[in-house]
């Protein structure tokens, strides 16, 4: 039974509480890559919604595509990485593909369809790389320190997300608000991240003659495992109540009448909180239970949605919303994968992680489109109220689903 299959990696750091060097190297790659990607992500909502005047539904489709498009290649990348045991190579292809799409935004011009196509390819690259990268983290770490390992990685990742918008603001200020300059700078930084991956990240694979052969029948059997099936359903439910950064920041910008020049600072504030709390909350999850910390994060998300419809305006309300949003990310990003790692067989680790991430990505795509439609029909206030109620239901359902999955693990 897959629930009892807990594999301690051969290259894990043998000292309890320490983080393997490979995790730090992967974190460095993510830090650099996130500087690149968040430079673009920070200006994209303003460019699409306020500059190109897209409707809320159209913006929701593109915003959902930004994450949902990763679903198409997550399972393919995960299966190929497990089948060939070339996790680093598959991840590298994904990083490279995303990097090449940054200058492609120059060719897209003001066409929403072309921008959507470039984003889809960029996110497909993310889909290829995410599961192999996270599998390498789990295979490089001892099971009892997975929360800390993912916390360190996500803290480094969020440092890049913190610096990216600031760099985008600096480039815009120095180039008379040239979006093209942002895209070119982003491309150069992304290619540097690929170089760091090639030089410093170690792959994790057994000799092919000793490794279990990965077959589709094994994947079907893994999905049928009750523990993994519950994790998959929970990931979909939680993805359905996550409306996305773009909408959250646009509602905050409209509520407080922020100037466009200040818009990227909303992302900066969120990532600053995420960066500071990712490691402490990951370590806390190892002690009190990863599930408990993750559900606390979704409580914070629900409070963010309530603040978006609160009659109280002003800087304190805005700052509180940004802090809570950062807590949500720090308490949830990577935690579900840390929960899944020990219950997935080592030779299927990448495929299993990709399966759960695919569920979340597809659910997020549906959520973003639905929220955009709801905004267009009812307005942002009513849409946020519905989202807050949905979060409460999702927390209750996930607590029930994950209760038995986490028995005997870290909860």
UniProtKB/TrEMBL annotation:
Pfam families in UniProt: MFS_1 (PF07690)
GO CC annotation: plasma membrane
Subcellular location field: Cell membrane
InterPro entries: MFS, MFS_dom, MFS_trans_sf
PROSITE patterns in the cross-refs: MFS
Major facilitator superfamily (MFS) profile domain segment(s): 22-406
GO molecular function: transmembrane transporter activity
PANTHER family the UniProt entry points to: C-METHYLTRANSFERASE, MAJOR FACILITATOR SUPERFAMILY TRANSPORTER
Annotated organism of origin: Nocardioides gansuensis
Coarse class of the protein's main subcellular location: membrane
Matches recorded under CDD domains: MFS_MJ1317_like (cd17370)
Protein name: MFS transporter
Topology in membrane: Multi-pass membrane protein
Annotated TM spans: 23-50, 57-80, 158-176, 182-201, 227-252, 258-281, 293-312, 318-340, 361-380, 386-402
SUPFAM superfamilies the UniProt entry points to: MFS general substrate transporter
Alphabetic keyword roster: Membrane, Transmembrane, Transmembrane helix
């Amino acid at each position: 039974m897959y629930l009892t299959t807990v594999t301690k990696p051969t290259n894990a750091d043998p000292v309890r509480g320490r983080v393997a060097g490979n995790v730090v190297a992967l974190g460095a790659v993510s830090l650099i890559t996130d500087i690149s990607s968040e430079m673009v992500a920070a200006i994209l909502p303003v460019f699409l919604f306020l500059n190109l005047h897209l409707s809320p539904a159209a913006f929701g489709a593109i915003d959902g595509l930004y994450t949902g498009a990763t679903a198409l290649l997550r399972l393919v990348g995960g299966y190929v990485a497990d089948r060939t045991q070339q996790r680093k190579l598959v991840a590298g292809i994904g990083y490279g593909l995303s990097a090449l799409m940054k200058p492609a935004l120059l060719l897209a011009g003001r066409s929403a369809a072309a921008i959507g196509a470039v984003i889809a390819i960029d996110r497909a690259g993310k889909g290829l790389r995410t599961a192999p990268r996270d599998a390498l983290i789990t295979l490089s770490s001892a099971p009892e320190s997975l929360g800390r390992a993912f916390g360190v990685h996500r803290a480094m990742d969020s440092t890049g997300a913190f610096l990216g918008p600031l760099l985008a603001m600096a480039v815009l200020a120095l180039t008379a608000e040239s979006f093209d300059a942002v895209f070119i700078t982003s491309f150069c930084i992304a290619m540097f991240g690929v170089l760091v991956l090639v030089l410093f990240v170690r792959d994790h694979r057994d000799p092919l003659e000793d490794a279990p052969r990965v077959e589709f029948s094994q994947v079907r059997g893994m999905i049928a495992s009750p523990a993994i099936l519950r994790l998959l359903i929970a990931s979909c439910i939680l993805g359905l109540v996550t409306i996305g950064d773009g909408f959250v920041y646009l509602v905050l910008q409209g509520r407080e009448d922020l100037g466009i020049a200040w818009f990227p600072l909303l992302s900066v504030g969120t990532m600053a909180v995420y960066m500071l709390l990712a490691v402490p909350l990951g370590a806390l999850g190892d002690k009190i239970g990863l599930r408990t910390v993750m559900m606390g994060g979704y409580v914070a998300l629900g409070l963010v949605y309530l603040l978006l419809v609160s009659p109280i305006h002003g800087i304190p309300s805005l700052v509180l919303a940004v802090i809570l949003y950062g807590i949500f990310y720090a308490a949830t990003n990577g935690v579900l994968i840390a929960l899944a790692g020990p219950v997935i067989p080592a030779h299927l680790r990448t495929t299993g992680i990709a399966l759960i991430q695919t569920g979340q990505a597809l659910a997020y795509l549906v959520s973003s489109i639905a929220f955009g439609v709801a905004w267009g029909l009812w307005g942002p206030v009513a849409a946020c109220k519905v989202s807050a109620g949905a979060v409460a239901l999702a927390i209750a359902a996930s607590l029930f689903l994950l209760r038995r999955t986490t028995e005997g693990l870290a909860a």
